[in-house]
Amino acid sequence: MTYTTKSGRKSAVPFALLFGLVLLAVIIVMAVSLNKIRNGQPGFLSNVWQPDPARQAPDPVLQDSPLGLEVPPYVKTILFMGSDFRAELGSLRTDVLTLAAFNTRNGKINLVSFPRDLWVKVPGSYENRINVPYQIGGWGMLSDTFAANFGFRPDHYALLGFDGFENLIIELGNQIEVKVGQPVADECDLSLDPSGWCSVEPGTVTMDSKMALWYVRTRKTSSDFERNKRAQEVIQAIADKALSPSSLKRMPAFLKAIEDNVETDMRLSDMVLYAFPLKKLLHDDLFTTYRITPEMAVGFTTDQGAQVLQPNIPAIQALLNEVFWVSE
Hints:
By secondary structure, the protein is of the alpha+beta class. It has helices at 12-38, 53-56, 133-150, 162-171, 209-217, 224-242, 251-261, 268-275, 313-323; strands at residues 75-83, 94-103, 108-113, 119-120, 128-129, 156-160, 176-180, 184-187, 197-200, 203-207, 262-264, 287-291, 297-301, 307-311. It has a domain at 65-160 and 292-328: Nucleotidyltransferase, domain 5, CATH 3.30.420. The chain is built from 9 helices and 14 strands. Strands 11-6-1-2-3-12 form a 6-stranded mixed sheet, with helices on both faces. Strands 4-5 form a two-stranded antiparallel ribbon. A two-stranded antiparallel ribbon has the order 7-10. Helix 4 (162-171) packs antiparallel against helix 7 (251-261) and helix 5 packs antiparallel against helix 6.
């Protein structure tokens, strides 16, 4: 699929200048806003004018829940979702669910992925896989599901389909450096390899958009636990490329690609403010990854014959306390 921005290449220079001016103005305001974030006040740029009433109201799911986690106010979370949307089937299950926790004090990010087959309670519905609530009731139902089962509600979400995933990488020069942790070999499209079989070995691997999509999606010879780990590796690779000095000239087109391809409840100012306090953008320890292991999610068969994973809530919450820097 060939991807071009709506504005076309001729507008890249003026858009870059406009972006620079807007970014400068936003940075001036951020200096005030970030201090308020670190002091525990909710929201981002909204701090400069007034608090967000929705974030101050009692949470209808969490207020009486014994599961509620005490997430520090300086930790902000985004749930990144990869969708298997197929127009011909009307399907939109979120098969990739990776939570990014941003620490606005130390400028670091923790990542944890939730297996798509986790069997959870869906408020207002029945028990189901965790990749189903968004399809049934959108972000509201999925957010409620996280609150009801794990004791926290993600601050924001970002949903990306297969085409959008490829488009973002294309706008970064169609090349990212993925730090592969484990060898992978599985069937692949003939366009990737004439043999119909692709493999990668541990180490830093250069991938284009199509190879990265195969790497994230493939699972015939591996498990969802391993696929979650690969998704984390690719998220890190995209972030490293987007935040690198060499990609500065691509930033306007990359932001435009986000606008065109990512469904999210965040504004551009929110996105900039998430990135701004990351003092170690070019350091290897920017990201720390966590995994829900098979011991935390044991396989079983439902009465209807579905093969799913039973979450060990106390074990997962103990992991989340690490992800959220609760003890620090």
